[in-house]
Design brief:
- By secondary structure, the chain is an alpha+beta fold.
- It has eleven helices and 23 strands.
- Helix 1 runs parallel beside helix 2 and helix 8 runs parallel beside helix 9.
- It is globular.
């Protein structure tokens, strides 16, 4: 048979190929021709065969969850498969036994491969947040996407969708239900107060994982490296090479990594970033530890830093974060803590110290939450998020990373003075925007571009 195993969010490079009852753990993103079978030799269902009946798919999902699911000890001893119409419905039921698990999902295998392999998905090409119950705004728009071509931009407010107010939609099915439709009519207000209407069709969106990086010269003659990372996917890796070579050339020892909208991604990309940041100062020391359930404890492994030609001599790392900063973004932050002075600017992160395996069956892929990650000091379990050291507002009227961006001001002040800048308390900032608190994860569950980039 031909099957595919994919790993997202925390599987270390150091894991060698070895079989467990249901999975072949590998380090590359996609491995073909891998045997995927249970103790009785039953392979994963293949498209076009009788093994891909709905009943067979449900049985496969149940068996997989009983084996690799991190919280498999919480699952019921017996399940009536006939009570669930689809494997997706069955997975929703099984997830319900662990309220912390807003992450396990089933998706199209082709769409999954397209996102993690090429950074592409079918959609509109924007992320958004609520600043009030009826105040929905674009946080970012991906270049050349349908949203970009329609004129959408950061900070613009969505007033209506298909002629309905945001308040009306939220009181009923929620905006997420409309963002899955195509075409969709948007009424939008620009930052200058003018309004316009656009009818937009979904299309192919290509994510630029590293929208910007630069070297910032400081008054004392030192240099700070800044890099914005949208998501941890393999297409980010060439930009890492270029950026860190420039950082090294400039003598950078302090780095600002902007992860404010980064919901995670691939562990291989996370570890590569770790090598550029810590490979010189922590070569061969522990980056992270990956811990599976009792069934698969033999697969527990430790990942180590590796020095690269452009690994910098890192002294201090500042991470810009929001409540949407999750998974691999938290992994890199937590894993660097024992090896450098790490600070978080913005707001607390989301809180996802666990990761998923990717296991193909038929034309689908199931990604059950299967392991947790801890750092060299065995610190993990941050389901409430990693706490911010300096509060800063994500001001949507200012471009990300601009000199006047409050997060950049806070990060550079912290590096320059060792202290957070004073924050003026006004009625407008007494309460952080809804998106800077933990948003309902169900709205981001089920598609990798929803979970990892909060994108539509």
């Amino acid at each position: 048979m031909v099957s595919t195993i994919a790993v997202q969010a925390a599987l270390p490079r150091s894991i060698p190929m070895q079989k467990s009852p249901f999975i072949l753990i590998v380090m590359s993103l996609f491995i073909s021709a891998c045997s995927l079978s249970d103790d009785n030799g039953n392979a994963a269902p293949q498209t076009g065969t009788a093994a891909c009946t709905v009943d067979a798919q449900k049985q496969f999902v149940l068996d997989t969850m009983n084996d690799v699911y991190f919280w498999n000890d919480l699952l019921p001893a017996s399940v009536d498969l006939g009570a669930y119409a689809t494997p997706e419905a069955l997975l929703d039921f099984l997830r319900s036994f662990q309220p912390l698990d807003n992450f396990s999902y089933i998706d199209s295998a082709a769409a999954d491969a397209q996102f993690f392999g090429a950074g592409q998905y079918e959609g509109y090409g924007f992320s958004s947040r609520f600043d009030a119950v009826d105040d929905l705004r674009f946080t970012r728009v991906f270049s050349s996407s349908p949203a970009f071509l329609a004129g959408f931009d950061r900070g613009q407010r969505i007033l209506m969708l298909n002629g309905r107010t945001i308040a009306d939609i939220q009181a009923n099915e929620g905006v997420g239900a409309l963002f899955t439709q195509t075409p969709l009519e948007f009424m939008v207000r620009r930052l200058d107060g003018s309004e316009y209407t656009a009818i937009v069709d979904q299309g192919l969106v290509t994510i630029d994982p590293v929208p910007q990086w630069r070297v910032i010269d400081r008054p004392d003659g030192s240099a700070v490296g800044y890099l914005e990372l949208a998501t941890f996917i393999s297409t980010a890796e060439p930009a890492f090479v270029t950026a860190f070579a420039a950082f090294m050339q400039a003598g950078v020892n302090d780095v600002i990594i902007d992860l404010r909208y980064n919901g995670g991604g691939l562990v291989s990309t996370t570890e590569l970033l770790g090598d550029f940041l810590g490979g010189a100062t922590a070569n061969n020391l522990t980056f992270s530890k990956t811990l599976f359930n009792a069934n698969n404890a033999a697969l527990n492994r430790t990942s180590f830093f590796q020095q690269l030609s452009a690994s910098i001599n890192l002294s201090r790392l500042v991470v810009i974060a929001t409540g949407g900063t999750a998974s691999a973004s938290e992994l890199i932050t937590n894993s660097m803590e024992p090896h450098a002075a790490v600070s978080i600017v913005g707001s607390n992160t989301f809180g996802k110290p666990v990761g998923q395996l990717g296991i193909e069956f038929c034309d689908k892929i199931i990604r059950p939450t299967a392991f947790e990650s801890v750092n060299a000091n065995d610190e993990g379990g941050y389901f409430d998020g990693l706490p911010a050291d300096c509060d800063a507002t994500d001001d949507l009227s200012i471009p990300v990373g601009a000199d006047t961006d409050p997060n950049m001001t806070a990060a550079l002040t912290l590096l320059d003075t060792g202290a957070c800048p004073a924050v003026t308390v006004t009625p407008a900032n007494l309460q952080k925007p809804l998106a800077e608190r933990k948003s309902p994860q169900a709205d981001r569950q089920g598609k990798p571009w929803r979970e990892f980039t909060n994108a539509w």
